[in-house]
Write a structure and sequence with these properties.
heterodimer, A: alpha/beta, 9 strands, B: alpha/beta
Chain lengths: ~270, ~270
């Protein structure tokens, strides 16, 4: 197998409709400098036929279909199979937004260990939110916004150095990996202003975001190392930023500032 | 022995006398006073001998050392108390009952117990600054520190976290606090007692530039870049916030912010 710059890893389980969308968007890329690895969990809904169909016309697709224990085990299988320098996890249902997006992203994949693009979040085919461009990725970014998994290329060597996704987690192994890499092992991360993928709500982490297991995992992540000591500072900072932003807004509108001063005088008189 | 007071000194006989006097004046005698002199040539040794004559609690040495943190580490190794207090020459216990009052709080076995520090102008004798309770988060140590002389530190912590870093000149006590409190799991306990009067002519006062350089070096060594960048920005915002709190419109802005926050909270479940 030839070493490519990027491996796109798609995991799927009984989601043939979403898988087709993903396969289609990957097949439509103008750039061919990547391989597409599909890890199917022995689906029974015709997913395998869909994969075979696309694999017929493309040499870049490598796939396997066998039972597994959840999405992070499937992803880890994908990492082991991948030959690319960088990995992009594009789960079935997610799709690349433009035909030239991989071409543009690959050009940015140099130097940093983690290259994080932007992500559309869509619900029933409609974009409801676009994740912001992250000029600097710090603990604040991870804690308050997070990195969009579907739009982030990760250097494969990181998984070999730091270990794979935790398979005992069901929802948040990707988040745990960001903390492990960026905070506890000083990996470099850079944000790029390219909308890479479209993330379909209705996936597992969005549906069960408030479940107990999810919360428990988040709690475990946020109690790693020194995090419990510094996160109260971050909560305080969030509040302060809100107030400062509001004040900056008032400052930039002299009329409002004047009326506020007037209000204050009125209050004082009362 | 419950407490060891450690005094380090180098050619500061005047300050040393003040310190010795204030320790000798303590009503409580259940402590040892360890004096580590760096082979002073200004008569400090005579002063120590003078006080040692009348007191059985004083233990002292006078030999060359490699700076203040080397001297403090020597003091820690000599100490036999459960707790240590660092009262460098020039620092003075604020009253004769300080030790007694702090001892009662030490009965609860806190990791670190601290009180207030008073900073006096050396010429006029006026109180410039009085440090009180601090939040002791990492931001506290990024911006300032916990005052070393008014802390009673459980001696075991030095075995657990290591001694002071002797490669630094003036910020090792801060670095130790940063590691133990800021990033470690120790929570200091506050008690509202005026413990020490700080000598405003101390070494940290003179060398602010060196201090800042050493602090930066330590921060870059101990904090991941992804966290340090946040604290750089946060410290800036905190300063802005301080300024804003003094601004005449702050009350109104804060009030409006609360109202908006509440409105948002009310709307949120409707959306979801």
């Amino acid at each position: 197998m030839q070493v490519k710059k990027l491996s796109i890893i798609t995991i799927n389980y009984n989601n043939v409709e979403g898988l087709r969308r993903t396969l289609e968007s990957v097949a439509a890329q103008t750039c061919r400098e990547f391989e597409h690895i599909i890890i199917d969990g022995a689906s029974t809904d015709g997913s395998v036929d869909a994969i075979k169909e696309y694999a017929k016309t493309s040499k870049n697709i490598h796939w396997v279909s066998e039972p597994d224990n959840g999405i992070y085990q499937a992803m880890n299988k994908g990492i082991q199979k991948a030959m690319g320098e960088y990995l992009l996890f594009l789960n079935s249902g997610d799709f690349l937004v433009e035909h030239d997006v991989i071409e543009r992203v690959i050009k940015q994949c140099n130097g940093a260990d983690i290259v994080s693009g932007r992500c559309n979040v869509s619900d029933k085919g409609e974009v409801v939110w676009t994740s912001p461009y992250l000029p600097q990725i710090t603990l604040y970014t991870l804690y308050s916004v997070g990195l969009p998994h579907q739009s982030t290329c990760i250097r494969k060597a990181l998984f070999e150095q730091l270990g794979y996704y935790r398979e005992d987690f069901r929802y948040n192994s990707d988040i745990e990996f960001w903390y492990r890499a960026i905070i506890f092992n000083n990996c470099t991360a850079k944000g790029i202003d390219i909308i890479v993928a479209d993330y379909n709500l209705g996936g597992i982490s969005s549906k069960e975001a408030k479940s107990k297991a999810y919360q428990k995992e988040m709690q475990e992540i946020l109690s790693m190392g020194f995090l419990p000591k510094v996160l109260p500072d971050y909560d305080q900072w969030k509040n302060e930023r809100a107030i400062l932003n509001q004040y900056a807004w008032i400052e930039s509108h002299p009329i409002i500032k004047k009326s506020l001063s007037y209000l204050r005088k009125l209050f004082k008189r009362i | 022995m419950k407490l060891s007071i450690i005094t380090i000194n180098y050619n500061n006989v005047e300050g040393l006398r003040r310190t010795l006097e204030s320790v000798a004046a303590q009503t409580c005698r259940d402590f040892e006073h360890i004096i580590i002199d760096g082979a002073s040539t200004d008569g400090s040794v005579d002063a120590i001998k003078e006080y040692a004559k009348t007191s059985t609690t004083i233990h002292w040495t006078s030999e060359p050392d490699n700076g203040i943190y080397h001297a403090m580490n020597k003091g820690i190794q000599k100490a036999t108390g459960d707790y240590v207090q660092f009262l460098s020459s020039g620092d003075v216990l604020a009253a004769s009952d300080v030790t007694v009052r702090m001892m009662t709080d030490l009965e609860n076995n806190p990791d670190i117990l601290y009180g207030n520090m008073i900073k006096k102008d050396s010429t006029t004798g006026k109180i410039i600054l009085k440090s009180g309770e601090t939040p002791c988060s990492l931001l506290t140590f990024y911006i300032g520190t916990l005052n070393h002389s008014c802390c009673y530190i459980r001696r075991e912590l030095f075995a657990q976290y290591g001694l002071y870093d002797e490669s630094l000149k003036i910020v090792s006590d801060w670095k130790w606090f940063l590691q133990v409190i800021g990033l470690g799991s120790v929570r200091p306990t506050y008690t509202n007692v005026d413990v020490t009067i700080f000598d405003a002519g101390g070494i940290s006062e003179k060398n602010i530039e060196l201090r800042n350089a050493e602090r930066r070096q330590v921060l870059e060594e101990l904090l991941p870049p992804a966290v340090l960048a946040d604290y750089d920005a946060h410290a800036f915002d905190a300063e802005q916030m301080d300024r804003l709190r003094r601004h005449h419109l702050y009350g109104l802005v804060y009030f409006l912010e609360r109202v908006l926050f509440k409105l948002e909270k009310i709307q949120y479940p409707k959306r979801g």
